[in-house]
Specification:
Elements: H1 2-15, H2 49-72, H3 79-88, H4 91-106, H5 110-131, H6 134-145, H7 154-169, H8 176-206, E1 209-211, H9 222-234, E2 241-243, H10 247-256, H11 260-271, H12 283-299, H13 305-310, H14 318-349, H15 358-373, H16 377-380, H17 386-401, E3 404-408, E4 419-424, E5 430-437, E6 449-454, E7 457-459, E8 462-464, E9 467-471, H18 487-505, H19 523-532, H20 535-541, H21 553-562, H22 567-585, H23 596-607, H24 623-626, H25 636-652, H26 660-671, H27 679-687, H28 694-699
Parallel strand pairs: 5-9
Antiparallel strand pairs: 1-2, 3-4, 4-5, 6-9, 7-8
Length: 703
C-alpha cells in the first residue's frame, strides 16, 4: 500500500510537468537544440539540474509520437519503415539519458539521486509501453517472418533478429494479465537497483578513520599520509589524518599500516558496508530484488533468473558458468592456501601469535613480497606517475593501431578535474573524443568504468563519432607529489582504456547492434592489461617522477618475477564473488524468512572459501549484481579472461607483441563490428579457433 501511494504521488507530480514550462524552451534547455560545442560534446557547463526532467519528459513524448507515426502509416511493414524507424526513435531521450546517468555515477548530488528515483518508474513504464505494444510487435514480427523478402545484409539481419528477440524477451508474447505484472516487476526492480547503489555510496562516504596520534601512522607511505592530512583539512580536522573506504585510501592502509587494531577497524567497516542495520542497510533491498527477479524469470517461462539472463550470453547456461568457475577455483584455492602459509610464517617472525585474519592479508603479503622478491609497491610508485602511465597507454595504442591522442583545451567537461583528448585514426580522420576523470570524490561512486556521453552511430550516411569517458578512483596528488599510481591502478587504467578503444573503433549503422554480450565486453579491456608491464612498454613510460630516469632493468625483472605472486588471493576473492552472484540467481524459491547473511555464509562454506578472504564484493555492497549491469554476470570477467589470455598469445606467437597484422585482425573482427556477429564467431574470425582455459591458468600462475 505504501508503495502504491508513493507511485501515485510520483504520477501526480510528473503529470503536472507534462506541459513543458519555461525550462523546456529550446532557448534555455541545452538538450532541445543541436550542440554547438567542439565535436558536438555535451555542453556540460550549461546543463543544470532543472533541465533534465523536462528533457526526459519531452524525450519520452517524442518517442511515443514517433512510434505512433510508425504504427499509423498505411504502408506494409518492411525493414526500413518498421525496424529502422524504431531503431532511430527516441534520440532526444538517448541524448539526455547518456548525460544524466553518466554524471549521476561520476558527479552526483542529492538532487540528481532524488530525480533518478522519481524518473525510474516513468522510464520503466515507457520502455514497457514500447515492448508490450501489440500493434508494434505485430509489425516487427511480420518483418521478422518475411525477412527473406527484404534482401538484408549481415548488419541489417542482426538488427532485425535482435529487435524481434528484444520484444519476446521483453514480454510481448505474454498474456495481458502477465504483462501487467511484468510492468510492475520492472518498475520495482529498477527502483530497488537505484536504491541499492545510492545506499552503497552513502555507506562508503559515511566512514572515516580519524588518527590524531602521529605514532599511529607507522609504516604508512609519506604520500598516503599527505593525502590523509588533506582529507582531514577538508573535513575540518586540520592537524589530524583521515582515512576513508575509497580504494586509494583503504587499500594502501591495509598494505602498510603497522597498527593491527586500526587495520581491523577499517577492514571491518569496508566489508560491512550496507550491513549496519541503519537507513542505508541493503539486506532487505537484496531480499526483495532476488525475489522479484525470480518472479520475473518464472513469469517469462524460466526456472530461475540466471537461466533467463544467460540465454542471451556467450555462456548460454548456468552449468557452463559453474564449470568454468570450478576449473579456476580449485587451483586458486590451492595457491591461496600456499600464500596463507607464507603469511603465517611472516606473522610468527614478527612475534604475532594470533591467527591470520582478513585485515592481515595485504599487510603480510607486502612483507612476503619484499622478502621473496626484494620488491614492494613503494619502490614502483615513483615510476608510475599518472601522466606517464597514460602516455604509455597511448603509445601502445599507437604502436598497435596507428591512432593518436591529442589533449583538447577549453572544452566543456563533465567535471573540472576531467581532461579531454581527441582521438585520430592513422589517416588523420576524427575517431572520437575521450574524457578521463581520475580521482575519488564524495559525488563519485567507487571503482572504475568506461561509458559514453554519445555512442557511435550514423546520421544521413555520415559517421557520428562517439564521446567516451573513463572514470576512475586513483591516488590523488598530495604533499607536493604528483599522482603516483600503484601497479593495480596502472593496470586498471589500461583496462578501462581497452573499453574506450572498443567504443572509439566501433563502426555500426544502428543502435540496436552496437552492443556485445556482457561476457564478451571485457575482452577488449582485459587484453590491454597484458601490455601494461611488458618491458618494452615500461621502457617507454616508467620514468621516475623526480629524476626522469627509466625504471631500472633490475626492478623490471623483479616486477616480472613477482607478478604472479598473490594470484591465489586475487583469483579466490573474484571467483567467490562470481559464485555468490550465481548462487543468488539460480535459486528457484525464496523462503519468506530468507536471510542474506546466512545465505552468503552458506555459499562460501559450500565453496570451501578461506575465512580470511571475503568475496571481492560481499552481498550488501555488490553493486555489479544488485545494482544491475552484471546480474548473474559477474563471472564475465573470468569468461572474457579465457578469451583475452588466448588472444594475447596470438601476438606473442608472432614474436612481436605489436605485430601489425595481428592488431589489424583484432581491430577488424573484435573492436569494430559491435554486435553484428555472434560473439564466438567474432573471436574465431580473429583467432581461428575457440580458446581453452589453459592460457588463463598459466597467465595467473595457477598452473
Amino acid at each position: 500500500m505504501k508503495r502504491m501511494l508513493i507511485m501515485a504521488g510520483l504520477v501526480m507530480v510528473l503529470g503536472a510537468c507534462n506541459s513543458p514550462g519555461k525550462d523546456a524552451k529550446s532557448s534555455e534547455n541545452p538538450f532541445f537544440a543541436e550542440y554547438t560545442t567542439p565535436f558536438g560534446v555535451p555542453p556540460f557547463d550549461k546543463i543544470k539540474i532543472e533541465h533534465y526532467k523536462p528533457a526526459f519528459l519531452k524525450g519520452m513524448e517524442e518517442q511515443k509520437q514517433e512510434i505512433d507515426a510508425l504504427l499509423n502509416q498505411r504502408s506494409m511493414p518492411d525493414f526500413e519503415n518498421t525496424i529502422v524507424a524504431l531503431d532511430q526513435s527516441g534520440r532526444l531521450l538517448s541524448k539526455v539519458s547518456s548525460v544524466f546517468y553518466g554524471l549521476n555515477s561520476a558527479n552526483t548530488s542529492e538532487e540528481m539521486q532524488a530525480l533518478s528515483k522519481e524518473l525510474a518508474p516513468l522510464l520503466s513504464k515507457h520502455r514497457d509501453d514500447i515492448k508490450l505494444n501489440p500493434r508494434l510487435f505485430a509489425r516487427v514480427k511480420e518483418v521478422y517472418e518475411r525477412q527473406k523478402d527484404f534482401n538484408l545484409d549481415k548488419e541489417q539481419t542482426a538488427l532485425l533478429e535482435d529487435t524481434y528477440k528484444s520484444f519476446v524477451r521483453g514480454g510481448a508474447n505474454l498474456s495481458p494479465e502477465k504483462q501487467e505484472r511484468l510492468r510492475a516487476l520492472n518498475s520495482e526492480i529498477s527502483l530497488l537497483q537505484l536504491t541499492f547503489g545510492q545506499n552503497m555510496l552513502k555507506e562508503t562516504n559515511a566512514f572515516q578513520l580519524v588518527i590524531d596520534n602521529q605514532e599511529d601512522l607507522a609504516g604508512l607511505p609519506a604520500s598516503l599520509i599527505a593525502t590523509a592530512a588533506d582529507a582531514a583539512k577538508v573535513a575540518g580536522l586540520e592537524g589530524k589524518w583521515v582515512f576513508t573506504l575509497h580504494n586509494p585510501s583503504i587499500m594502501p592502509f591495509l598494505q602498510f599500516s603497522e597498527r593491527r587494531p586500526l587495520r581491523e577497524k577499517i577492514f571491518k567497516a569496508y566489508i560491512n558496508r550496507g550491513n549496519n542495520n541503519n537507513e542505508s542497510d541493503n539486506k532487505e533491498v537484496v531480499k526483495k530484488l532476488v525475489s522479484l527477479r525470480l518472479e520475473k524469470a518464472k513469469l517469462m517461462g524460466y526456472d530461475d533468473y540466471a537461466a533467463f539472463v544467460l540465454e542471451d550470453r556467450m555462456a548460454k547456461n548456468e552449468a557452463n558458468v559453474y564449470r568454468l568457475l570450478n576449473q579456476v577455483w580449485e587451483p586458486a584455492l590451492r595457491k591461496a592456501k600456499e600464500e596463507a602459509g607464507d603469511l603465517k610464517i611472516a606473522m610468527k617472525k614478527e612475534g604475532v601469535k594470533d591467527e591470520l585474519q582478513g585485515w592481515d592479508w595485504r599487510y603480510y603479503n607486502e612483507k612476503v613480497m619484499k622478502e621473496k622478491f626484494d620488491i614492494d609497491e613503494n619502490q614502483l610508485r615513483p615510476y608510475l606517475k599518472l601522466e606517464n602511465v597514460r602516455e604509455g597507454m597511448f603509445y601502445v595504442a599507437n604502436k598497435l593501431y596507428g591512432i593518436t591522442f591529442t589533449e583538447l583545451k577549453d572544452m566543456p567537461k563533465p567535471h573540472e578535474e576531467a581532461i579531454a583528448f581527441e582521438c585520430k585514426d592513422t589517416d588523420g580522420t576524427h575517431l572520437g573524443v575521450l574524457y578521463m576523470d581520475y580521482f575519488p570524490r564524495a559525488s563519485k561512486r567507487g571503482g572504475a568504468w568506461c561509458g559514453t556521453y554519445r555512442s557511435q552511430t550514423y546520421k544521413d550516411s555520415v559517421r557520428v563519432a562517439p564521446v567516451v569517458t573513463i572514470v576512475c578512483n586513483f591516488t590523488k596528488p598530495s604533499g607536493g607529489q604528483p599522482a603516483l599510481l600503484s601497479p593495480d591502478e596502472a593496470s586498471t587504467m589500461f583496462h578501462e582504456f581497452g573499453h574506450a578503444l572498443h567504443n572509439l573503433f566501433k563502426d555500426v549503422h544502428y543502435y540496436g547492434v552496437s552492443g556485445v554480450p556482457r561476457d564478451f565486453v571485457e575482452l577488449p579491456s582485459q587484453i590491454m592489461e597484458h601490455w601494461a608491464f611488458e618491458p618494452e612498454v615500461l621502457n617507454v613510460y616508467a620514468k621516475h617522477y623526480q629524476t626522469g630516469e627509466m625504471m631500472p632493468k633490475e626492478l623490471i625483472g623483479k616486477l616480472e618475477k613477482s607478478g604472479k605472486y598473490g594470484q591465489g588471493f586475487a583469483t579466490a576473492e573474484y571467483v567467490q564473488a562470481s559464485v555468490l552472484d550465481m548462487d543468488y540467481h539460480v535459486l528457484k524459491e525464496i523462503p519468506a524468512d530468507f536471510d542474506v547473511e546466512k545465505f552468503e555464509a552458506a555459499s562460501m562454506k559450500r565453496l570451501g572459501a578461506l575465512r580470511q578472504i571475503p568475496p571481492r564484493y560481499r552481498t550488501t555492497y555488490f553493486n555489479h549484481t544488485m545494482g544491475g549491469g552484471y546480474t548473474a554476470g559477474y563471472y564475465s570477467y573470468m569468461w572474457a579472461e579465457v578469451l583475452d589470455a588466448d588472444a594475447y598469445q596470438a601476438f606473442v606467437e608472432t614474436g612481436n607483441i605489436f605485430d601489425p597484422e595481428t592488431a589489424a585482425k583484432f581491430r577488424k573482427y573484435v573492436l569494430t563490428p559491435g554486435g553484428i556477429d555472434d560473439a564466438m564467431v567474432m573471436y574465431t574470425n580473429f583467432r581461428g579457433a575457440e580458446p581453452g582455459v589453459e592460457p588463463l591458468l598459466k597467465n595467473r600462475g595457477l598452473k
